[in-house]
Amino acid sequence: MDADPQPTDLDRYPTLTPAGQRLLSFLKEHPHAPIYRNESGNRLLPEEVTRVRSFESEVAAAAIDWRAGEPPRWLEEFTASTYADVPHYRRQGTPPARFEDILSISRADLSRDIASFVPDSVPVERMINFRTSGTSGHPLLLASHPVVAASYLAFHKRALRRHGITLLAGAGEVGVVLIGHQKKCFTYVSVTPTMNEAGLAKINLHPDDWRDPEDRAKYLDDLKAEVYTGDPISFAELLTLPVTWRPRALLSTSMTLLPGLRQRLEERFQCPVLDLYSMNEAGPIAVADPAAGGHVLLQPRMYVEILDEEDRPLPPGERGEVTLTGGFNFCLPLLRYRTGDHAALDFSGPEPVLVGLQGRPPVRYRTTSGSWINNIEITHALRPLALPQWTVHQAADGTVTFRHAGMDSLNTQLRQILQSILGDGQRLHVEQQAFLDGKVIQYTSDLADPATT
Length: 453
What we know:
By secondary structure, the protein is α/β, with parallel strands linked by helices. It folds into two domains: 9-357, Rossmann fold, CATH 3.40.50.12780; 364-445, GMP Synthetase, Chain A, domain 3, CATH 3.30.300. It has helices at 9-12, 18-29, 46-61, 75-85, 87-90, 107-112, 146-162, 215-223, 232-238, 259-269, 375-381, 411-422, and strands at residues 128-132, 140-144, 174-180, 188-192, 198-204, 227-230, 249-252, 273-279, 283-289, 294-297, 302-307, 320-326, 334-346, 353-358, 364-366, 372-374, 390-394, 400-404, 428-432, 443-445. Strands 4-5-3-6-7-8-9-10-14-13-12-11 form a twelve-stranded mixed sheet, with helices on both faces.
């Protein structure tokens, strides 16, 4: 995340106090600490700390109450300022009379020329950037800012409050541990100025990042972090460790969290497990709430449409591509940005809800009877299982290969589930692997789908 080659601690922590320095030393020099391979920091100037705190208050109090056919009041002004300040849109002239006539953009557009999507008014001196590979084949270099990075917490707090949790960690305490489980992982320690320098540690549970694999549980127990964040892969690894500390909440991001794994985590740690819909381009977008029937939106200044392939908004209840406008990253204002994820919008309650959220484009699989099923049917059938990660591929000859990073003991059950969906006599391979490295595309097929050809 650091933009300059050799930043100092003053660059990384402009408001650091002696107490904050002691906490950083504790995190790095602990006898069971991992091998921290990187340096990072909050980079917040004093006036920016005040700005982020004010933003957190605004997010906490704001309502998300726009309805179908009634977009939020800020949308028109946001669109006009984006067309005036962002090179990609300024080249197009004035905005169309109808918002729905604005052409959507995708990850591929950002990948080709990210600079043209950064407003001219953003001072480059304070900008930071980070890279993301994703699963779409379009690596991204994303523009951001220390204030933007610090503002993620506002939406995490909003999600936690929905589950009855208010963060309390402060000076001398560890607020958040970000947990990964990868062969290579960016790891560092920092403090959070808006929480009186509560500590933050980004760690990798892969044994290669530790002097002794047994140190993993010891370190986590000594940190006594208020919240763990991670993805289903890292949380599945966490379940294998003899950790005794119970955080107040777990926040799962990046990948589909099956209810079976969520239940195991809740039983083990005796705390809520939140399933966040989040992406690097937009930050935290929504949080799953079973009572609401789906994922409830988190950003007051994010407008969500469900589009068909022709950029036409679909009515409530119809599935299409989740498309975003707005956001809190003032270095990358989004205007009809197609996420590659699919869901329907529901307005039956007091706020918009994403229903049936599914990452990446839908894929259909041919059954032994010759009929076709949507991949979401497979996801639903897998709900009871504690699977952290999986892929399903159908070859041109109809053979289905299911790879997963769960336990060997699940293979028989998985075979039964897939046979019940795809039909008796389905040629099927179920393969358990210790590790599916990084993000993967869950659903793929070599078969031509008559619905799309």
